[in-house]
Amino acid sequence: MLGVALRHRFGRDGFTIDASFKAPGDGVTALFGPSGCGKSTILAAVAGLLRPDEGRVTLDDAVLLDTARRVCLAPERRRCGVVFQEARLFPHLSVEANLRYGLKRAPHDATGPGFEAVVALLGIAQLLPRRPGRLSGGERQRVALGRALLSRPRLLLMDEPLAALDAARRAEVLPFLARLRDAARIPILYVTHALDEVDALADRLVLLEAGRVVAEGSVEDLTARTDLPLAARRDAGVLVGCTVRSVQDGLATLDFEGGTLVTTSRPGPPGTRLRARLRARDVAVATEQPRGISTQNILPVTLVAIDEGTEAGEVFLRLAAGPTTLLARITRESVARLQLRPGITVWALVKAVTFDHRVVRQVAAHTPPGRGEIPT
Ligand SMILES: Nc1ncnc2c1ncn2[C@@H]1O[C@H](COP(=O)(O)OP(=O)(O)OP(=O)(O)O)[C@@H](O)[C@H]1O
């Protein structure tokens, strides 16, 4: 478990951070928030690259920083692997030498995946003899991830590792990040302001605004809340854990706790577990079961609550499909016209074509092997 509590002010009247949160022993905790909210500063303080005015950072039993007790471990003693936006590889060394540099930094008694395992995990075997200057941006980032992992860190810190890449390169590197997450079995603190990266990678979210933690919790829980800044986004909506039941004629049937969904996205073969983002603006409701309608997903749900919307004239309907919460963003006028009120049963309508490969992502099964092994 990583514990972070920090207070810092840049200059006398500068930006102030006052944030505390926890991150579990493995999996990805995303620090998420708008530009300038303090994400990178927090990461730098955890890495030991910035000394905050006050703070305490602990990793299991180890105290990395405790200003009250004048403890402030140097960055190299914190055993954090750090990956930045730019790969920061040594340009004069081959990929292999860059990776072996990571291995050299690993303490002798540290366990973790070996050189070959990391090379296979990140698919970089054919790059080993090359210099970084002859790699694509995505390849460079995969090597940077490998170098960080080979230093056998106790904690991985990633500061927008995909932000400098174009869409195609991001899509190329994202699955490798997911594989690394499942192989590393250590806490990963991941700074981003891209919601699709949160969907694909994060287990927990720490929402930041102006240097403060607005909320922290599981991604599923926080994306289902309508009182957070997330709800104001156009892509606001819940993340639903699903398993592919079947794929036929370009349609995949997904089971989730509380029903099934049909989608035209290509989520993978039967058995694949994934998360579907059901955007609130893509969900409509009907008070009677619609017939003669093209919409493929028509789910019986209970209307649990009508929450304040983030735009004038709009509300969020909080809907229960079994234990799963869905959100629908509709007009206040429709609430009045349909006489919607908490407790009634309605039909939630979601078009099959609103899911695409960006909103439905494969999540590697969370039954990873022992620490340090690479899942096949
Ligand atoms: N060395 C510094 N001196 C003064 N102010 C700073 C310094 N570093 C950062 N800041 C300020 O602190 C605030 C938080 O910066 P930070 O880089 O942590 O934000 P961020 O959430 O990571 O932003 P982005 O998503 O744009 O990278 C900003 O207002 C920034 O201008």
From TrEMBL:
Write down the InterPro entries for this protein, in alphabetical order. Answer: AAA+_ATPase, ABC_transporter-like_ATP-bd, ABC_transporter-like_CS, Mo/tungstate-bd_C_term_dom, ModC_ABC_ATP-bd, Molybdenum_import_ModC, Mop_domain, P-loop_NTPase
Q: Name one Pfam family in it.
A: TOBE
User: Among its keywords, does the record have Phosphoprotein?
Assistant: no
Q: Looking at the keywords, is Transcription regulation present?
A: no
Which of UniProt's keywords are assigned here? Answer: ATP-binding, Cell inner membrane, Cell membrane, Membrane, Molybdenum, Nucleotide-binding, Translocase, Transport
Give the source's domain of life in one word: Bacteria
Q: Which SMART domains match?
A: AAA
Q: Give the Mop domain ranges.
A: 292-359
* Single annotated GO MF: molybdate ion transmembrane transporter activity
Which residue intervals define the domain ABC transporter in the entry? 1-235
| One GO cellular component term | membrane
- This protein's name: Molybdenum ABC transporter ATP-binding protein
Q: What is the lineage of its organism?
A: Bacteria, Pseudomonadati, Pseudomonadota, Alphaproteobacteria, Acetobacterales
- Name the gene: modC
